[in-house]
Structures are given as C-alpha cells and as structure tokens.
Design brief:
Blueprint: H1 6-11, E1 19-20, E2 23-24, E3 26-27, H2 38-51, H3 60-80, E4 87-90, H4 93-105, E5 113-117, H5 126-129, E6 137-141, E7 143-144, E8 149-150, H6 152-158, E9 164-170, H7 182-192, E10 195-199, H8 211-214, E11 218-222, E12 232-236, H9 238-244, H10 267-291, H11 301-329, E13 334-337, E14 348-353, H12 358-367, E15 370-371, E16 373-375, H13 380-385, E17 394-398, H14 405-421
Parallel strand pairs: 3-15, 5-6, 5-9, 9-10, 10-11
Antiparallel strand pairs: 1-2, 4-12, 7-8, 11-12, 13-14, 14-17, 16-17
Helix pairs in contact: 2-10, 3-10, 10-11, 11-14
Bound molecules: pyridoxal-5'-phosphate.
C-alpha cells in the first residue's frame, strides 16, 4: 500500500469504539500508554485459557509456556535488533532500571561519576541519583530551555575518561518529544570507559530501534507504550552483562537473559508482547511500499517488517503533528514547547495556555472525549526548569498510529474554545 491505511489500523483497536457524552473518545494519551489491538487481547486470553502453567515442567501447558517465553525473547530481539539472549523482561522499565542501577552501583567506588540529564523521566534519573548515597558523584547534563534539547557542549565537558562510569539518558523526551542523539552519547561513554543506559520508553512508539547502531550497553522500553501489555524490556549487550555480573538471587538462572529477570514473569504479558510486535510487523508488511526507499539494506523477515511498520507510523504522524503545532500556535495564549521545526522529535506535542492551569484544560478536554495528559509526566526536572510547576505543568497531546486528522481538528477547536472562555 502506497498510502497509510488509518481506517485499517483503527479497525484493529476495539477501544476506539468508546464514546464520551456521545462523542468518540480520542486517545491522545499514547505517551502514557497506547491502546491494545485485538490480536494482543487474543494472545493474552489464549495464554491464560490454553497454556497457563509455570515454566520448566514436564507437561503440555508448561512446555507451551516455555515456548511462549522463547517466542517473546525472539520477538524482543527482532524489535530491538539484537540476539534473543540479550532481551530480558520485567514488571516495567522503572523496576528493571532500579535493578540495573543496583547492579552497576555495586561496581562503583566512591568518587566515581554518573551522568544523568535534566530532560529525562525520573525513572532514568532517580535510580542513578540514589547512587550518591554510595559515594558516587552525580552530574546533570543541562537543557537548552529555549529548544528543550540537551546542551551537548556541556555534556561532553561533563564526561571524564576513567572517572565517569555510567551515562544514563533518554532516547526521546516523553514531555516534549525531543529525540536525542543517543549514538553520540553511547560513543562518549565508550570513549570514557563508562556504561551507557538508554531509556527508549517514549521513543519505542515513534521510530525503529537498532541497539547495534546506537552502540549502547543497555536500553529499556515498555510494551504498554507500543500496543502491548504492562511488561518492561531490557536490552543488555552480551559483553556488558558478562562484565557487570548482575545480582543473582537463588531463584534466578545465572545465564543471560534470565540473569536480569527476578521471579516468575508475567507470561500472559509476554504472549501479548510478542503479539504487539507482530502487530507492528503486520503494519510494516501492509505499508512497505510507503517506506521502501527508507528501509536500511540487509534487513530480513520480521525485523524488516517491524522497521517498516515503525517508519510508516511515523511518516503518517509527523505531518499531522506539524500541522497541529501550526494550528495551536495560531491560538492566542498558546505556548508550544520542544525542539525547533526540522529537528529530530516525536509526534508528541506539548503546550501551555495562558490563564488556564494544565489540569483544568485536560479535564475540560477530557469531558469532550479528548484524552490528553497534563502535568510533568515525571519529567519533573524539565518542567521545574521551564518554570511550569506552579502552572500545573504542560498539556500533552500524544499522536499514535491510530490518531486521525479529525481528532486533532476537534482538539484544536476545543483549545480555541478554552482560550475564548478565559477572556
Ligand atoms: C520516557 C519514559 N521513561 C520511563 C517511563 C517509565 O516506564 P514504566 O512505566 O515502564 O516504568 C516512562 C513512563 O511514562 C516514560 O515515558
């Protein structure tokens, strides 16, 4: 298909039939969590009905559970561009990061340095900030507040070979959509002899991830942000796992990828995660003609289809987001936040409206069936630096592959009405 078939995409999501006060619900809350396609629902249900057992047993449902786990590792590897043994699962990104910080923290000596950024979600700051209690020195990469982008000159100056041991940064900002040059950060880390940790939770819905091209040691994301259930994914480069020697509880296997996994996993969630990745691959197969010229050479099978699916979704969403920003900019009192037009950014659009608290705006929009988030979305440091904490933070509109122009037109009209009512 040479154009994006949004009607087909929408038909896959039962939730999109929901109405609020007679109006269709517009799920513009994707950065908080996406909706779930039918095939993911089917996979979760089928696991619980037909295959539910603990793993490692000598009977049918347990063997089927082992196969469910193996398929999820393979799907995760195709999603991230690595080996199945480099993908581990957990409750969510935050829990996996906390565990990772604990493991890396044990290998630090007092005075070793850890670099975080002012742009990041607290899930990729707090676990590293806590290492200060063990004597680590935490350094923060500042943000250029006019563009909501990292200050790379300061970043480079902060990283000190031999002293810096961890660099933790986001692939994309869940608050304002800035996409960071994570390959450059990973390169800085390698040159300094530090581990690089990339939070790809927001980015994972918006672009293909190739951990080898990024060159990082660890990368984390969450399936519920890309159509799946509540499951966290950790990519741990094989050599990095061998170096780190993760914490090893008696209930854990000592081999990767299980060495990063604690206790019994959410097997129905793993079945759903595989189905979510297959859903993206299906989108790719349907839309490959749209993105063929942008597909890297040498990709095969499901990996190729996944990359095509991600590129197609973004090719559809980016012009919608650009138009949305233009329309919002035309409303008096609206201030948009994020990188300049043309810079790498996701289709997440954040703004404030003079004289209206973000929470009030989100509530009014929600009553009209327009589901947007307000606040700091745990990117609290950025919102504080922007001076928006007292005003209730930002209003965030998240586009997803199922978003339509009609929904965004409704949103623009409703924001215009809000602006009118404040005068
Ligand atoms: C950028 C970013 N990082 C991390 C997280 C935390 O992810 P999880 O809910 O899987 O712990 C979120 C959740 O909103 C996020 O947007």
């Amino acid at each position: 298909m040479s154009h994006y078939d949004v009607a087909y995409v929408r038909s896959q999501f039962p939730a999109l039939k929901r109405t609020i006060g007679g109006r269709p619900a517009a799920y513009l809350d994707g950065p908080g969590g996406t909706q779930t396609p039918q095939r993911v629902l089917d996979a979760v249900l089928a696991y619980l009905v037909d295959h539910n057992a603990n793993y490692g047993g000598r009977f049918a449902t347990s063997e089927e559970t082992d196969a469910t786990i193996a398929r999820a590792h393979e799907a995760g590897a195709d999603f991230l561009g690595c080996e199945p043994a480099e993908v581990s699962f957990g409750a969510n990104m935050t829990t996996l990061t906390y565990f990772l910080a604990e493991a890396l923290g044990r290998r630090l000596s007092p005075g070793d340095e850890v670099v975080v950024t002012a742009l990041d979600h607290e899930a990729n700051r707090s676990p590293w900030l806590q290492l200060a209690e063990r004597g680590a020195v935490v350094r923060e990469v500042p943000v250029d507040l006019a563009t909501c982008t990292l200050d790379w000159t300061a970043f480079e100056a902060l990283v000190r070979p031999g002293r810096t041991k961890v660099i933790a940064l986001g692939y994309a900002s869940n608050a304002v959509g800035t996409v960071n040059d994570v390959a450059r950060a990973a390169q800085l880390a390698r040159a300094a002899g530090a581990w690089s940790v990339v939070d790809a939770v927001h980015y994972a819905l918006h672009g293909p991830i190739d951990v080898r091209a990024v060159g990082c040691d660890f990368l984390l994301c969450s399936a519920y942000k890309f159509f799946g259930p509540h499951v966290g994914l950790l990519y741990a480069r094989r050599e990095a796992t061998a170096q780190v020697e993760p914490l090893h509880l008696a209930t854990q296997y000592s081999e990767p990828p299980y060495v990063w996994e604690t206790g019994t996993l959410n097997f129905e969630g793993l079945a759903g995660t595989t189905a979510a990745i297959d859903f993206i691959a299906d989108l790719g197969e349907r839309h490959v003609a749209m993105v063929e010229d942008r597909l890297p050479a040498g990709l095969k099978g499901r990996r190729r289809a996944i990359v095509a699916g991600m590129l197609a979704g973004e090719a559809y969403e980016q012009p919608l987001a650009t138009r949305l920003r233009e329309q919002l900019a035309g409303i008096p009192g609206v201030t948009l936040y994020g990188p300049p037009e043309g810079s790498p950014r996701t289709s997440t659009v954040s703004f404030t409206l003079d004289g209206v608290l973000a929470g009030e705006a989100a509530r009014t929009l929600g009553e009209r069936g327009l589901f947007v988030w307000d606040g700091d979305f745990y990117a609290a440091r950025l919102v504080e630096l922007l001076g928006l904490t007292e005003r209730g933070g930002l209003i965030r509109v998240g586009l997803a592959p199922y978003t339509t122009q009609d929904e965004l037109d409704r949103l623009v009209t409703a924001v215009g009405d809000l602006e009118g009512s404040r005068r």
